[in-house]
Amino acid sequence: MQRHIAFVCAPLYRRAVQLQKKGEHPHAVFRSSRCKVGVQRQVRFTVPGLRATAVMPTPTQAPVRVQVPRRELGEKAFGFTLVRSEFVPEIQSYVRVYKHDRYGTELISVVNDDENKTFGVAFRTPPSDSTGVPHILEHSVLCGSRKYPVKEPFVELLKTSMNTFLNAMTFPDKTCYPVASTNLRDFYNLVDVYLDAVFFPRLTPDTLAQEGHHIELDAVDQPMSIKGVVYNEMKGAFSSPERVLMSASQRALFPDTTYGVESGGDPADIPQLTWEAFKSFYDRCYHPSNARIWFYGDDPEDMRLQKVAEFLDAFAESSDRPPSMDPKATAISVQKRFAEPRRVELPYATDESGKFYTTVNWMLHDTVVSLDADRMLSLVVLDHILLGSSAAPLRKALIDSGLGEDVLGGGLESDLLQMTYSVGMKGIAQEQDTERVADLIFETLRKLSSEKLDDNLVLASLNTIEFRLRENNTGSFPRGLALMLRAMTTWLHDADPVLMLRFEEPLKKLRERIASGEPVFQKLIQEEFLTNTHRVQVVLRPDPDYAKRTEEAEQARLAALKQSLPAAEIEKIIQETQRLRAKQAAPDAPEDLAKVPSLHVSDLDRKVKTVPRHAENRAEGVTILSHPLATNGIVYIDVGFDTTQVPSELLPLLGIYAESLFEVGTHREDFVALQRRIGRDTGGLRAAVLTTQQVDERGDGAVIQRLFLRGKATANQVASLFDILTDVLHEIKFDDRERIRQLVVEERAGLETRLVPSGHVMTASRLKAQYRRSDWVNEQLNGISYLRYLRALQKRVEQDWDQVKADLERLHQCVISRQGVIVNVTYPQIDEVMSHVDAFLEALPARALSAAADTNAAPALDGVSLRPMNEGLVIPARVNYVGKAANLFDAGFRVHGALLLAARYLSNTYLWEEVRVRGGAYGGFCRLDPRTGTFLFLSYRDPNVEKTVDIYDGACDFLRRIQLSRDEIDKSIIGIIGDMDAYELPDAKGFNSALRYLTGETDELRQKRRDEIFSARIEDFRRLADALAQVREHGSVVVLGASESIRRAESCLKLERVEPALPGTDV
Ligand SMILES: [Zn+2]
Asked: Among candidates 866, 629, 925, which has minimal Cα distance to 26?
């Protein structure tokens, strides 16, 4: 339900770390169907009548292991008073609210048996302009503090902690600093650094210059330019039309409040931020009386209180600020309702083929303070009814209309004081169609509010939401953090923080109301949408000259400024530029770096984390894997079909084929009925295509290609889940041309939208494809090649449908068979589900259509020959993604755990410093894929091209020169082990274990790598240097970026080919 995180900063850095974290399978790339069906659990409904009873309600008793200190309400401890204490069964936790005696700071202590401990400190930070002051502060407080006087303690922690989450987030009205770790000592190290950062940062005008904005000038005859980390970040963010639209939609609804400005900062406004405004915003907002502190997990409660008390006491001693700031200074005012609907139109930067975007946005009636939990839940279910799946009537009406390429707008938004709703479309060809989209939205809503809603539609949504709430599967995101953000909805505005954590009562009431025949949702649609005049339609108009005009206007402004300045001032700017650069380049003093707390190598577990796995090999190559893990009553099932026999011309069609499995319907039911059945009777089903390769000495093992069908259900839903799978696999009907066309258009539009923001992923994919066949397949299925294929496929669906349909049918026959299938079950009582598995397998066709049986169709991989090549791919953006790669196996090296360590060190030091801090890119890093041996340098949102390649080429000299103390090597070891031991929920544990089984990555091999890491020495870093000399000499370069930048670099980088990433882009 949290969709509106404005900025999760340093995302690239996180992504790089997370990629390593998935480190177990860095090479397995998924293209996964969007999970339009959510998750649900153990709820049986009797139809009709809509009476529902939870078979497995949330237990109301705490597990014995969970204990809180005995303390009466009103009792004091560590300068806090306990003001509230209760057991919340929905989250199996004690929730206790403490209030600080001096500052009134509220601290919520959630005690349970989750080892993934979470801490967060949040401040109410409503901005009054779009200079991005909250966002710049979020970056700035992490740039050194009283106890940790180094340039970026945050980066030090990323390098050397075992964190499962470490980041900061700026929302429209708050700034959050959360951390998580499963290691107690590590957790408190992180808490200490974060508390010191927010209450005692070393803010100076230089911090604002570096993180916010400053003018750079190298010489008198050079042009001036604006630089700054957030300035660059927001320029990048605003090059995405969807991001522009999201911002504009919110701002248009709240012209009179803080939500009417851009908290992340508008690049046009950021340079107006002064040091005085910056400092006074900090003083006003970052005060203990405006802080909300959250702890969650299995650490002792008193430790929490003691740690925070330490900082608040120090604050009292050192700060001259009063014990309480005026709470009104950060209170968020209520937007007055519009008497009439409004309309806003804005230009956005696009290439020639630009299309229109539109959303219709409502401000709902309640504030999150006045709202009760029942109404909130009703709205959440209504949102799912309207938009939650491809069968949802509002989503379906929009898609069916063909007016645009995909549905847009996040639906219900409950992160702001006043809730909003947003829906629209992207990829609209004609301006007048933006009106037709709005008309269609109203027409559909009117229809829904006047008719009785289909029972199965309501049940599917109710079940899906309930399953989601109970399973609380947050993936790699810590559960404690998801709950903190949920509590923050009300807590931020001084309302009941526990309200949003409970759901049993509201669920029960909602079920009863529905059962009694009350038209709950029709009424809501009427009140919140149809008769609500507080709404705005926002239209984004494509403007091919917009980027150029903005750029020219900025340059003209700077040129005029330079003209107006006396020579002495100009000289001063040149000197300042040099001074700032020198300051950024100066290393931290070793004694200061040593102050940043870290674990010791001795705190780490030498043994690799293993997952229990039982493998049963049957006739016909069938494998059954099972993992007896505690899953809270949920059965997770993955069925993997071998796709290596797919002929080459059908290979790229696998994605759309997988996407269509649950989306086109069968001979028995159309896709709407199928989707509702999945929502009603299971916890969700999706298909994913996986490509990886077998572990092999030369990093060139057999390619593994699988189509995975992944589902979840409660034990007594397993039969229904397999029924649905069997129906789909036996009865699927590829007749519906329009439906397939919609899927292709959605897929294409989605990938095109991600092309620029995920340019580094595309660049990496393109480069890796030059070295290994498995990566080549991945590029065909996910990369630029795939995007080009989709464009052609869309035309084929329109012009040559019969052939496309025949291809889909042939693909289905090539893939679905019992031969070589793998079934992976994660659940403690495997026996309970085995009979269903057996029956399902029995019903599968014995053999697939083989490619060889087909005249002139060889398996896709037979004809592949790989060749490294320098390539420039032009995209309509003002930023570049620069990659360089080579395969170390091919250059005669062997992958060793210590090389992985050295590569990670290089990312965190040299590349971070040179590509990000000095080069002005948003990120720069490298990766060594242990399975293939491909080494890859990458930059993210980079203003440079050749300069970045020079930095890559300098990496081997950097590694040859470095002197590393044992302590520094140990810190790196801690960091990489932290990545490798990433926290996983049981479904992820079971699935990753199955992937390791497929690739032959044994626990012995993993242990060997781990041992190699622990025994790393400086010589290993030098060994990587030798390998990187090979990358420098023989590596290939791929640049995805702006036309101008690529043209400038073309001869210097010896680009063999320069072409638009997508046909139709101006080169
Ligand atoms: Zn940021």
From this structure: 925
